Structures are given as C-alpha cells and as structure tokens.
Amino acid sequence: MLDAADETRPFLTELEPTVARLLDRHLAQSKEWFPHELVPWSRGRDFEPGWEWSPDEATLPDEVRSSLFVNLLTEDNLPYYFRTIESAFGRDSAWGEWNRRWTAEEGRHSIVIRDYLTVTRAIDPVTLERARMAQVSCGQVPEPETPHEALVYVSLQELATRIAHHNTGKLLDEPIGYDVMKRVASDENRHYLFYRDLASAGIEIDPSTMMLAIESQVRDFEMPGTGIMDFGTHARAIARAGIYDFLVHYEHILVPVVLRHWGVEGLTGLNDEAERARDALLKRIERIGKAGRRLAARREESAALAESTAQAEPADLVSQSA
Ligand SMILES: [Fe+2]
Ligand SMILES: [Fe+2]
Fold first, then answer.
1. Residue 178 burial by CB count (10 A; 0-12/13-18/19+): exposed, middle or buried?
2. Which helix (H) or strand (E) holds 294?
3. For a FRET experiment, which of 128, 211, 214, 252 has its CA 20 to 30 Å from that of 154?
C-alpha cells in the first residue's frame, strides 16, 4: 500500500471536490436509524452457565448460518478496513471526513447483526466470539496497492456486501431478520454509490490508470473476509445457497457497474497498456459470465435431482413393503 503523500497525491487532490460533493449527497440521503429498535429483545433470555449451543436453537439452513457468520465477521474487521482506506486516501479534508463517517456507519452494522444473532441464538455465540478474536487479531484484509485500485475495490466490495446482506436477509425467512439485513444493505448501497461515482470521476481524470486498476481488481476480486476461519468452506456454502456466486458477481456487479456504469468498452484516451488491460478485462468478464451460468445450471440440476430422489423415496418404500 502506498502512502497517500506520494505521487498519487495530485490525483487525490483533484478528486477532493467530488469527495466533498458525494459526502454531502450521502449525508443528505442517509436517515438516522438505531440498532436497538430493530432487535427482537423479547426473544432473548439469559445464557445459563454451562449452556451449549445446538443448531436446534434456530432452524436455519447451514448456508445461511455461514453467510451470517461471514457477514458479521467482515463488519467486525472494521479497524483494518479503516486503516486500508486511510492509507489509500489520507486522513485530511473530505477524504478523512468520509472515512470516519463510513467507519461509524459500519460499526452500526456489526452492532445490529450481533444483537440480532445473540437474542435469536441463530449462531453459536462462543464460536462467533472466538472467530471474531481470531479474525481481528490476524488483521488480514484486501489491501489494494494504489488509490485507483482502492477506489475500484471498495466500489465492487460495497455492492457485493449489499447483495450478500440482502440475499441473506431473504433466506432468514422471518420479517424481523429480513428488516435487520435490509437496513444494513441499504447503508451498503449508499457506500457503493459514493465509491462508484467517485471512481467515475477518477476515470475522467486518469482513464488509463483507472483501466489498469479495474482490470487488476476484477482479476483478483475476493469477497471481504479472507482472514476468517474456514473462509473457503463458508464461501462455498454461500455460493451454494445462491447468496453470492459467480453468476451474481457477473450479473449484478460486472455487467451493471464495470460494463454499463463505468462504460469500459467505450472509454477513449487510453494508452497502449490500458488498451491491452481493457481487452483482457472484457475477455475475463465474458469468461466469468459463462462459468457463472454453467455452475448455476449444475447446482440447479443437483437440487432438482435431490428433490426428485426425496420424493421418490417414500413411494419406493411403499412399493417395497406392498
Ligand atoms: Fe457494513
Ligand atoms: Fe459498507
């Protein structure tokens, strides 16, 4: 990670009026909300000494538990995201003001999700707390190399987080849990809009460097949460549930943001290296779309097979016993 006081300073300075404008827009569009008003406290009770969690505490598919676990631990890792953003963009002016406001909002997310999970007992609080200690102790987060890369990463990551929270909320199958996740997702949406539009302004200032950044961030994109214990297993479960997978990534991020909003295909004024990066980017996006469709189709086939097997079994038993 470069220090913000290096050769990227002119780029950051030129973007500063846009940061101030987008921060004002963000503040005007944000509505104050309180975690305690969304949490169903009446469902909570004391945790007796020696009590041990079991999945029967709350009926939820394992995939949804995985998603809640990863989503909350990602929010818990806020100190390191703050550090990444402050190193990339600096602590002064509207940049610093945005980062501190963003941090305060993200803190609200972990408060509301943890309180919801504690009273509903949807996840083992002991496992969760140990995982939080491990996660924050290891201090691992994606660390984009330059402010250009950071702008692209946070745009994609905030949108990915919004989608993951919202899809998780839908699978909770209860209005209170859905409202918690929806409220968090709507904050993530405003964060995404802030960064997306800031990245657009960055593209106008320095299209070639931004194109290189977009190509490299799409190539290496990972959902936040890479330092979480068993992250790979949880990420596969989250994909299995269709909460966040290649197809979602392609249809809801790469196409609407990278192709349509940033309009990478039609960008002009690129140097040779950026032209080559654009070619590679477009090919990669196409490949991700194809892989996403193939994997989603395969998952649907195995789900249909599992369902037909489950339906066939009782009949088979009847015919065998007749
Ligand atoms: Fe968040
Ligand atoms: Fe966010």
1. middle
2. helix 272-321
3. 128
CA 63 to chain centre: 16
Q: Are 80 and 139 in contact (CB under 8 A)?
A: yes
Give the closest residue to 268 by CA, choosing from 177, 191, 197, 207.
Answer: 207
pLDDT, residue 313, reads 56
pLDDT category at 312 given cuts 50, 70, 90 is: low
DSSP character at residue 257: I
| Ligand 2 center to 57 CA (angstroms) | 30
Closest to 223 measured CA to CA, from 210, 214, 211, 232:
232
Q: What token pair was written down for 213? A: 């950044």
d(CA 308, CA 102): 48
Q: Which residues surround ligand 2, an ion (CB under 5 A)?
A: 158, 188, 191
Ligand 1 centre to CA of 105 (Å) is: 7
d(C-alpha 54, C-alpha 271), whole Å:
58
Tell how far the Cα of 264 is from the centroid of ligand 2, in angstroms.
24
Phi-psi label, residue 52: left if phi above 0, alpha if psi -120 to 50, beta otherwise: beta
Helix (H, G, I), strand (E, B) or coil at 6: coil
Whole-angstrom Cα distance, residue 79 to residue 129? 16
Cα-Cα-Cα-Cα torsion 192, 198, 203, 208, nearest 10 degrees, comes to -80
Q: What is the 3-state secondary structure (H, E, C) of 132-159?
A: HHHHHHHCCCCCCCCHHHHHHHHHHHHH
